[in-house]
Amino acid sequence: MAPRFGFSDFWAKETRKGTPVVVKMENPNYSIVELNEPDEAFQPMEKTRGKNAKQVRWVLLLNAHKAVGCLTWLATLFWSLLGSAKRRLSFTHPLASERLGRDRWLFTAIKLFLVASLTILGFELVAYYRGWGYFQNPHLYIPTSKLEIQSLFHLLYVGWLSLRADYIAPPIKALSKFCIVLFLVQSVDRLILCLGCLWIKFKKIKPRIDGEPFRNDDVEGLGSVYPMVLVQIPMCNEREVYEQSISAVCQLDWPKDRMLIQVLDDSDDQSIQELIRAEVTKWSQEGVNIIYRHRLVRTGYKAGNLKSAMSCDYVEAYEFVTIFDADFQPNSDFLKLTVPHFKEKPELGLVQARWAFVNKDENLLTRLQNINLCFHFEVEQQVNGVFLNFFGFNGTAGVWRIKALEESGGWLERTTVEDMDIAVRAHLHGWKFIYLNDVKVLCEVPESYEAYKKQQHRWHSGPMQLFRLCLRAILTSKIAMWKKANLILLFFLLRKLILPFYSFTLFCVILPITMFVPEAELPVWVICYVPIFMSLLNILPAPKSFPFIVPYLLFENTMSVTKFNAMVSGLFQLGSSYEWIVTKKAGRSSESDLLAVTEKESKKTPNQMLRGVSDSELSEISQLEEQKKKPVSMKKTNKIFHKELALAFLLLTAAVRSLLASQGVHFYFLLFQGLTFLLVGLDLIGEQMS
C-alpha cells in the first residue's frame, strides 16, 4: 500500500471540480473505473473472487491425502512396535524369562491392580454410553431413590460410586499426602546436598596433603620412606576384564619391595583360572611382587574372599590395603595421590577415589546410569566427606588403614553390601574418611538391563539387611547423638528406604489408581513440576546429559519397582535378599590405555617377555594365548521382565481413563511412563545379555 500523506486530502478539495466522466472503448483490453478520491487507487481491494467447485474438490483431496499419510505413518510406527514385541515374545527362550521365585508377591499384586483397572474401565464405559455418568465430573449425582434405578447394572454402578467416594478415596488421599510429604522431605535433602556441593566449589574446599612425603622421582631408591601397601583384586569368572585390571595394577608407581599384589580368584571355571594364573605368572616374571590365590570353597562371596586374604600371615607387615574390582583400571599415580593423605592423621581410616566410566556413552542405559553415579560421587560423597568425614565405602578404588579394618571387626559375610557394612562399623569406632573427587579410576557400568537390574537389587536389598543388623549397635555406640541421627534418619531411612518407597508408591500405584478414583486426584505440581526440578538437580554434575532429562525421569520411575522390591526383600528377608550375582562386564578399555598397551608390547621382544620360563611352561602359555584369541561364541538372549510389563499395561490403561477424562498432564505422563515400562519389560533398552 502506498504511503498516505497528510496534505492529500487538502489538495483533493482544491482540485476536485466538475462532473466525473467514465470513458469506455470498443473491444477494450482495459477499463477506466471512476475514482472519487486521488488515494482511492492505493487502497486495498477486497478479494471477492470465489473458488469454483473444481478448486474446492482439489483442496479437499489434498487435505485428505495429508490426513491419510499421517494416519499411515502412525499405523506403521504402531505396527513396527507390535512386530518388535511379537518377535521378542516369540523368539525368547523360555529360560530367558525373568525368574520371579519368592519375589512373586509384587507381580501378583500388580496383576490384581491391572485386572481391577480393566474391569472398572469397562464398567464406566458402559455406564457412560447409557447416560449414567461422566468421566470429567468426579462429583456425580448418586441416585438414592429406587425409582431412579433403571436396572441391576445401574444399581451396581451406583454402588460403585458410593463405595468409591466413601471408602476408597479417603485412604488413598491419606496415603498420597503421606507420600507427598516424604517426596518433599527427600527433595529438600537433595537440594541441601546440591547447595553444599556449590559451597565446596565456591570455596575450593578439598583435602590437602600435609607436606610432600614423596618428592624423589626415583621410587626404588627411597626404601622405608614409602609405607607397605597391599593391593587386592577380587574377581570371579571375569574373563572379559581380568587382563586389563591386572595390567593396570601391576604398573602402579610404587617401590616394588613396598607393595604386594593379591589376585583373589573365586572363579569356578577351570579355563578362566588358568588364564588368570598365566597372567599373574607373566607379570611375576617381569619382577612384579604379585601372587595368585584361589579358594576351593566360595563362601561369603566377596566379603569371604577378602576375609580369607587378610588372614595370611604376611599381611601383618603391611600398613595399608587398597582394593580394585576386576573391571577397575587405576592410573599409575593412584597410590601417590591417595596414601600420602594418611600422613600425620592417625584418626583417618579410609581414602576413597572417584569412579570414571569408559563406556558411559555406549548406549542410552549407560548414559542414564552415568547421570546417577555422577550425582552420587560429585554431590553425595563429596558433601558427606567434607562436612561429616563419613560416607559409604564404594567397595573399590579406596585405600584402607589395616588397623581400622581390624578394630572394626574385619570383613563380615552377613550382608551383600560388605563395603557399607565395614564403613558403618568403622564410623561407629571413631574413624574418619576422606573423599578425593579429583582422583578418578576407570571402570565399567552395566550395558544390559538385566545386569543393571541385578546390581541395583543387590545395592538396595543389602542396606536394609544391614540396617536391621546394626540398628542396636548404632543406638548403643559412643558416637555423638547427631551422628547417630545422621546414620539412622538420613543415611539409612531417607536415602535407602524412603526414596524407593515413595517413588514406587506415588508414581506407579497411587497415580494410576486416582484415574479411576477421581476424588483423590493428584495435583499437577506433584507429577510434573517437582520431579522435573529434582531431575534438573540430579543432572547438574553431568551437564552434557541435559538432553536426556526426560528419559532419565521416566527411567528412574521405571527402576523404582526393582528398588522397592529389593528394599522390601532386604528389610523383611524375603525372596532373594542374600543373592549375589556377579555383574556382567564387557571388557572395554579407554583409548589411552589401548595405545599404552600397544606401545609397551611393541617394545618387548619374545626373549624379554618369556625370560626364565621352562619349555613346559612356554608350551602352556602358548596354548593359553591361543585360547584367548579364539572367539567365544555366545548367543545373545532377550529377557522378558514380568513386573515391568504388568505395570506397563496398568499405566497405559490408566492413560486411557485419563484421556477420556480430558486430563492433559496426567494423560501424557501416564502414556510415556507406560511406554517406558513396556520398552524395559521387553528388554529393548541397553544391550542383551550373552
UniProtKB/TrEMBL annotation:
Pfam family for this entry, one: Glyco_trans_2_3
GO molecular function: glycosyltransferase activity
Gene3D superfamilies on file: Spore Coat Polysaccharide Biosynthesis Protein SpsA, Chain A (3.90.550.10)
Domain Glycosyltransferase 2-like intervals: 321-515
Residues spanning the membrane: 64-84, 105-129, 487-516, 522-540, 666-685
SUPFAM superfamilies for this protein: Nucleotide-diphospho-sugar transferases (SSF53448)
Keywords, in A-Z order: Cell wall biogenesis/degradation, Glycosyltransferase, Golgi apparatus, Membrane, Transferase, Transmembrane, Transmembrane helix
Subcellular location as annotated: Golgi apparatus membrane
One GO cellular component, as annotated: Golgi membrane
BP GO annotations: cell wall organization; plant organ development; pollen tube development
Lipid bilayer topology: Multi-pass membrane protein
Region of interest called Disordered, as start-end residue ranges on this chain: 597-618
UniProt cross-references to InterPro entries, sorted A to Z: Glyco_trans_2-like, Nucleotide-diphossugar_trans
Family of this protein: Belongs to the glycosyltransferase 2 family. Plant cellulose synthase-like C subfamily.
Record-given protein name: Glycosyltransferase 2-like domain-containing protein
